[in-house]
Design brief:
This protein has helices spanning 2-40, 58-101. It is mainly α and 102 residues long.
Length: 102
């Protein structure tokens, strides 16, 4: 019984750490890309401010692809994977218990 509680705690802790890592990634993405876009658009220079040029957003676009991949892993794959493995584990436990009874 105590082992199951320990395993459940470790699984929950891993989920929290994974979520925390994603939210940290999101915060860094927002801060860094805001800075890059502002500098690229000449907001801090005496030159003409230009938010229309596509090159201002290249880093945000490609990093955004990575961020979306990270979000898919955290919110979709991690939940699906846990459900698939949980069902498989329960099925195997039942199978072994049935085999032991006969």
């Amino acid at each position: 019984m105590e082992t199951q509680k320990s395993l459940a705690y470790l699984k929950a802790k891993k989920k929290v750490e994974t979520l925390k890592a994603f939210y940290s990634h999101l915060a860094v993405y927002i801060l860094v890309n805001t800075g890059i876009i502002l500098v690229s658009a000449n907001v801090f220079n005496s030159e003409k401010i230009d938010f229309d040029h596509w090159s201002n957003y290249v880093t945000a676009f490609f990093w955004g692809i990575g961020l979306v991949s990270h979000a898919l892993y955290v919110f979709y794959v991690m939940n699906i994977e846990n459900n698939i493995f949980k069902r498989w584990e329960e099925k195997k436990i039942k199978q072994f218990l049935d085999e032991d009874q006969f």
